[in-house]
Each structure stands twice: as structure tokens, then as C-alpha cells.
Amino acid sequence: MNIPSVDSEQLLNIGYDACAASCGNFMVLDHTILDIESRYQGLKVMPLAKAFDVYPHIREKLFFGIVDKDKNEYTRMSYNSEPVGYYIRVEEGVKIEEPLQAAFLFGEQGSTQLIHNIIELCDGAEINIVNGCTTATHHSQGTHVGITETYLGKNSSLGFTMLHNWGNTVEVFPVGAILVGENARYISNYVAMTAVKKIVSYPVAHVKQGGSARFFSIIFAKKGSYFDSGAKALLEGAGANGEIIGRVVSDGGTVISRQMLSGNEPGTVGHMECSGLLLNENGVIHSIPELRGAHPDINLSHEAAVGKISTEELSYLMTRGLTEEQARSLIIRGFLDIKIEGLPAKVQALVDEVIERSIAGSI
Description:
Order of helices and strands: HEEEHHHEEEEEEEEEEEEEEEEEHHH
Distance between the termini: 31 Å
Number of helices: 7
Radius of gyration: 20 Å
Largest sheet: 10 strands, mixed
């Protein structure tokens, strides 16, 4: 697709590749839908406003069903506005291998972009969604609000990859909530490798019996960037499990990493860890891990560490013929390398490629 104000490199940096195989597409510029398509039987992709008419239960039960409309000023604003965003539905038992690509582009100077998405997987359904956000021009400034409510039926599986590529004049407020049904599986991957004025994000997963929610995040905070991000997993059913893994590099930016696991039923298991790497004296990494146990038959754990690039590792690599810049780049690549069990090879390759391009342009 040819969009004059957005070059193909920007779209590739958020995982939107018109040449790649996918099961569907959805693209928005400001508040206008530019592209929408489903190429798989049993997959519905449509504007949320239209979905209200096709599926009455969406407005009645799913729209602000697990996100409180009074959570903050932005959710109240969104609730009272015409919804702009997608409704994705995968029918019962339908398993889709190729990912769905979605892109949200911000370009109107000084405006507030309000997006509301709803994802519904019926029992036994499977899909992977690559959701990317970026500015349509390098000088765009304003506020982006993205609300995503996700409902997973029994034995369903969703891989949700979010790639952010903003500018240093944009403030971003994603609001996410996930209802993980019985024996369902949810995997979230969040990658932010470019400068941004401010991002505040704290998705919450409600995990029912036998279900699992896993959050992985990779953040490279450049000078002047501010991140307040993390995830919460509420293990509300027997045998539910959760995992929250964060890798943070600060090159002068500030990152507050919030992670919370709550075990409320017997047999629940959860683990979280945040590892931070400070590249200079101007950055800040603040890790806030929380564990809450409300039943004796649970197992929750956490790890957190913040430090600098090892002088010994740097010296060793330089003795092997690398320049200091090459050695630092290699160490950072290794630090950010998270191989996610259960993530399709195509999506993992996309995440690796985005990280590689970003590091190459930063070090």
C-alpha cells in the first residue's frame, strides 16, 4: 500500500509489510481507516463501529467490559467518542498460522488520537497479531490513546506483538485488559526501541483455571524518553500461571518498570524478572516488582537487576578484534535477545529484525 506521508521503512519498523504473507490487514491514519482485509475463512476483521451493528453482544458485553470507562480522562473521552479501531474475531476451532498485521499511524499535529480495539477468540481458536504504532511524519506531536480489550475462549491461543516506533514529541497511553479463559494461552510481546516523549502502559490479564498469560517487553530508552510500563497478571483460577519478563536498556532515558503477580487459587504459579542495563550516567531504571499471595498452595517468584556493561566483557571482545562500538553493540544485542517459547518463527524473526535495525541506528 502506498501512503505518501509514511515511507516503507517506517512501516517495516512496526511490522507492517505489504509483501509478507498475512491472514489479514488493518491500518488507520489518525481517525481514518485506510486498509482492512481478511483473507482467511473463520476470521472477521472489521471496524469496531460496524461490528456494533453486526454483533450486538459487543456493545452490550465487550465494549468497556474489562476496562473501566472511568479509569482516567482518556478512557472517559474514548467512551464518549465514536470508536475508531478494529474488531477481530476468530471462530471456534479455527487455527491460523499466518499473522494478522495492524498499523496505527499518527500524523495530525497537536491532536489526540483515540483508538479502541476488541479481540475475541472463540473456544479453541488460534491467531497471532502484529500490532504496530508510529508517526506518519518525523515531526508529528500530540497524544495517542490505544485501548485494547481481549477475550480468549476456552483452549484458545493468542500471540499479540506490539511494536512502538514513536517520536520524541508524542505522548502515548495504551490501556490493555485481557480475559484469559479456561486453559487458554496469551503471549504478549512489547518492543519499543525509539525515542518517545512519554509512554504509560500497564496491561492487566485475568487468568482463569488452567490458563496462562506471559508478558515479554524490550525497551531501549533514548535520551529524553520516559517510560512507565509493565504488566499485571491476576491468577484467578486453579492451576493458572503467569510470567512477566522485561529487558530494559537506558541510553539517557527514564524507565519505570512495574510488574505484579497475584496468586489467588490453589496451584497457581508465576515468575517475573526485570533486567536493566545503564549505558551512561544520565539514565534511570526503576524496577517495581510486586507479588501477592492469597492462598497457601501457590508459587510466585521474582528477580530484578540493574547494572552497566561489563568492563571485562567489553575488553575481551575488543581483544578479539572488535572496535569498542562493535563490542558494545554486540553486548546490547545479546542482552535484549529473548527467545519466546510458543512464538511462531515468523513473528520471532520480525521482532529480531526490528531490534537489530534499531540497535544499528542507535549505537
